[in-house]
C-alpha cells in the first residue's frame, strides 16, 4: 500500500469540502467537549464524595433531660452510652458535644443570620455524640442499636443530607451527557454526510479505482482517514476548550465552594486525563461512522 | 480468454432478460467487435466480464477466473487483468496526462520506481510522448482517448474492453484510435470492442458478434456491420 498516495487523497478530500470539513470538526469538538465536561463532573463527584466520606459523621442526639442535667457526660446514662460507643467495633472515634458547645457551633454556622441566632436559645439545642464510623456505609447498624435507647433522642446520618447534594450533582452530570449525546448524534450525521459528499465529488476517481482493480480497502481508506482526522482534530479542539474553560471560568465559579471545602478541587491533571480519553473515543466513533456510511450509502 | 456458456442475465427491474442464453468463446489475442442496437445487451456483456454484475444463469470464465463464482475479495485481482476504455474518456481533470496514467498503478499499490519506468513507455506507445505534463483540457478528444487507452494498457492487461471508444470522435481521429487498438492487440492483448461505428467494423474485417434483444444473432469470423439487414 502506498501511504503517500493515500494521504495525498485524504488531503485533497478534506480541502475539497473545506466548509463541510470545518463544520464536521467543530460539531465533533463540541460533542467531545461536552462529553469531557460530563466526565469531569463525574470525577468531581467522586473526589467530593471521598472528601465528605472522610468527614462524615453520625450524630446521636441526647434527650432534653440528659442534655440539661449532664453537661460533662459524667452521669450513668450519658457515660454508659459513651462507653458503649467507644467499645463498638464499627466506631472509629466518638466526641461528646454538650449543649453549650452545640450552641457555640450553631452561632458559628449561622453567623450570617443573626436573627436566627438571636431567636435560638441554648436550651433548644440537644447535646450529642459525634460518631465517626470506620465504614461510613454502616450507619444502619448504629441507628438500629441506639435508636430508642434511654437518653437517646434520635440518631441522624449526615450521609442522607449529602446524598441530596450528590443527587444534584448527578442530575447536572446527566443533563451534560444528554446534551453531549444529541451533539454526538449531530456530529455522526455530519461525518456521514461529509463522507457521502466527499465520495460523490470523487466519484470519477472512485469509479476508476474500482475498474483498475483497487481493493475495497484501498478505495475506502482515504474516506475513513478523513473521518478519523476530523475526529482527532475535534478531540484536540475539545481538549483545548476544556483547558480554556477550566482556566477562565470554572476555577472562578468553584473557587468559593472549594475554599469552603464543600466540593473537591479539580486539577489540570484531571482535565488532562479526561481529555486523553476523548482521542480514542473521537477516532473510533468517526471511523465506525465512516465505515458504516461507506457500506450503506456509497458503492465502492 | 473469454468463455460464456448459456449465460443469461435478468435485472430485477426488468421482465425481459438483458442477455438470454448467450454462448461465446473468445481466444487469447483475438480482436472482436460486439455490435447491436441500443438495448441489445452489449453493456451488460461488458459489465459481466468486469464482474460489475453476476450472471443469473450459465458459466462465465475470463482468463482462468470463473467470474460468476468469484468472491468479492478476489474481484480486484480480475480487474487488474482487464483494461477498460469508454466513450467519455473518464480522465481526472485535476491530474496531468502522466498522473492520470500513473493513477491506475498507484491505486493497486505498484512501487514508485515501476510507475516512473512504465508510464513514459506507455505514453510513447500511444503517441503522447512530450505531452506528459499537459492537463486533459489542453488535449484534443483523440489525445484524451489515447490517455485513456494508455491508462487501460499500462498494467499490461490480458483483455482490453472498449465501450464505444470512437463514439465522441471524428472519422479521422477514430481511425487513429483503431490503429492504436490494433497495435495493442498485436502485443497479445485480447480486445473486445462494443461499437455502433459501421465504417470501422467494415474496414477492419475482424470477428463480429452481434447481439439483438439479448441473444447472439451472428458470430462472423471476419464480418462487417450490416450484413443481412
TrEMBL record, chain A:
Residues 56-155 form the FtsX extracellular domain. It is found in: Cell membrane. Keywords: Cell cycle, Cell division, Cell membrane, Membrane, Transmembrane, Transmembrane helix. Residues 178-295 form the ABC3 transporter permease C-terminal domain. Gene3D superfamilies: 3.30.70.3040. The keyword Transmembrane helix applies. Its main location: membrane. The chain crosses the membrane at residues 21-45, 175-200, 221-245, 276-298. It is a multi-pass membrane protein. The keyword Transmembrane helix applies. Part of the ABC transporter FtsEX involved in cellular division. Belongs to the ABC-4 integral membrane protein family. FtsX subfamily. NCBIfam families: FtsX_actino. This is Cell division protein FtsX.
TrEMBL record, chain B:
One of its GO terms (molecular function) is ATP binding. Gene3D superfamilies: P-loop containing nucleotide triphosphate hydrolases (3.40.50.300). Keywords: ATP-binding, Cell cycle, Cell division, Cell membrane, Membrane, Nucleotide-binding. GO terms for biological process: cell division. It is a peripheral membrane protein. Its main location: membrane. Transmembrane segments: none annotated. Residues 2-227 form the ABC transporter domain. InterPro entries: AAA+_ATPase, ABC_transporter-like_ATP-bd, ABC_transporter-like_CS, ABC_transpr_LolD-like, Cell_div_FtsE, P-loop_NTPase. It is found in: Cell membrane. PROSITE patterns: ABC_TRANSPORTER_1, ABC_TRANSPORTER_2. Belongs to the ABC transporter superfamily. Part of the ABC transporter FtsEX involved in cellular division. PANTHER family: CELL DIVISION ATP-BINDING PROTEIN FTSE, IMPORT ATP-BINDING PROTEIN. Homodimer. Forms a membrane-associated complex with FtsX. This is Cell division ATP-binding protein FtsE. It comes from Allokutzneria multivorans. The lineage of its organism: Bacteria, Bacillati, Actinomycetota, Actinomycetes, Pseudonocardiales.
Amino acid at each position: 500500500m502506498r501511504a503517500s498516495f493515500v494521504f495525498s487523497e485524504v488531503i485533497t478530500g478534506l480541502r475539497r469540502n473545506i466548509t463541510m470539513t470545518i463544520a464536521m470538526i467543530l460539531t465533533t469538538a463540541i460533542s467531545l467537549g461536552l462529553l469531557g465536561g460530563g466526565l469531569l463532573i463525574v470525577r468531581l463527584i467522586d473526589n467530593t464524595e471521598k472528601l465528605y466520606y472522610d468527614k462524615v459523621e453520625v450524630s446521636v442526639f441526647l434527650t432534653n433531660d440528659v442534655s440539661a442535667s449532664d453537661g460533662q457526660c459524667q452521669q450513668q446514662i450519658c457515660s454508659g452510652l459513651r462507653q458503649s460507643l467507644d467499645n463498638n467495633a464499627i466506631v472509629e472515634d466518638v466526641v461528646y458535644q454538650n449543649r453549650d458547645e452545640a450552641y457555640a457551633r450553631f452561632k458559628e454556622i449561622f453567623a450570617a443570620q443573626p436573627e436566627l441566632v438571636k431567636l435560638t436559645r441554648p436550651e433548644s439545642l440537644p447535646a450529642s455524640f459525634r460518631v465517626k464510623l470506620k465504614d461510613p456505609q454502616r450507619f444502619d447498624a448504629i441507628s438500629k442499636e441506639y435508636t430508642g435507647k434511654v437518653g437517646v433522642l434520635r440518631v441522624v446520618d449526615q450521609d442522607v443530607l449529602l446524598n441530596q447534594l450528590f443527587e444534584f450533582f448527578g442530575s447536572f452530570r446527566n443533563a451534560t451527557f444528554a446534551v453531549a449525546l444529541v451533539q454526538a448524534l449531530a456530529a455522526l450525521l455530519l461525518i456521514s454526510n461529509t463522507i457521502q459528499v466527499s465520495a460523490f465529488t470523487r466519484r470519477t476517481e472512485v469509479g476508476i479505482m474500482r475498474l483498475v482493480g483497487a481493493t475495497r480497502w484501498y478505495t475506502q481508506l482515504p474516506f475513513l482517514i478523513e473521518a478519523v482526522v476530523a475526529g482527532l482534530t475535534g478531540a484536540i479542539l475539545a481538549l483545548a476548550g476544556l483547558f480554556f474553560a477550566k482556566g477562565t471560568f470554572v476555577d472562578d465559579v468553584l473557587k468559593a465552594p472549594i475554599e469552603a471545602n464543600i466540593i473537591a478541587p479539580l486539577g489540570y491533571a484531571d482535565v488532562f486525563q479526561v481529555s486523553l480519553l476523548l482521542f480514542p473515543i473521537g477516532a473510533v466513533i468517526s471511523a465506525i461512522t465512516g465505515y458504516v456510511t461507506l457500506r450503506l450509502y456509497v458503492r465502492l | 480468454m473469454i468463455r460464456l456458456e448459456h449465460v443469461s442475465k435478468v435485472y430485477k427491474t426488468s421482465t425481459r432478460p438483458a442477455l438470454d442464453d448467450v454462448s461465446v468463446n473468445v481466444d487469447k489475442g483475438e480482436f472482436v467487435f460486439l455490435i447491436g442496437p441500443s438495448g441489445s445487451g452489449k453493456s451488460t456483456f461488458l459489465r459481466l466480464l468486469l464482474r460489475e454484475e453476476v450472471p443469473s444463469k450459465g458459466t462465465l470464465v475470463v482468463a482462468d477466473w470463473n467470474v460468476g463464482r468469484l468472491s468479492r475479495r478476489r474481484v480486484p485481482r480480475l480487474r487488474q487483468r482487464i483494461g477498460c476504455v469508454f466513450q467519455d474518456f473518464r480522465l481526472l481533470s485535476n491530474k496531468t496526462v502522466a498522473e492520470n496514467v500513473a493513477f491506475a498503478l498507484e491505486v493497486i499499490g505498484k512501487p514508485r520506481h515501476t510507475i516512473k519506468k512504465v508510464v513514459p513507455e506507455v505514453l510513447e506507445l500511444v503517441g503522447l510522448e512530450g505531452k506528459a505534463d499537459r492537463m486533459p483540457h489542453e488535449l484534443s478528444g483523440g489525445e484524451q482517448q489515447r490517455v485513456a487507452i494508455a491508462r487501460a494498457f499500462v498494467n499490461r492487461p490480458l483483455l482490453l474492453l472498449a465501450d464505444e471508444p470512437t463514439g465522441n470522435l471524428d472519422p479521422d481521429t477514430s481511425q487513429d484510435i483503431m490503429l492504436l487498438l490494433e497495435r495493442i492487440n498485436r502485443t497479445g492483448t485480447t480486445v473486445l470492442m462494443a461499437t455502433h461505428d459501421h465504417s470501422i467494423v467494415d474496414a477492419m474485417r475482424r470477428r463480429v458478434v452481434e447481439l439483438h434483444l439479448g441473444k447472439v444473432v451472428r458470430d462472423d469470423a471476419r464480418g462487417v456491420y450490416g450484413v443481412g439487414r
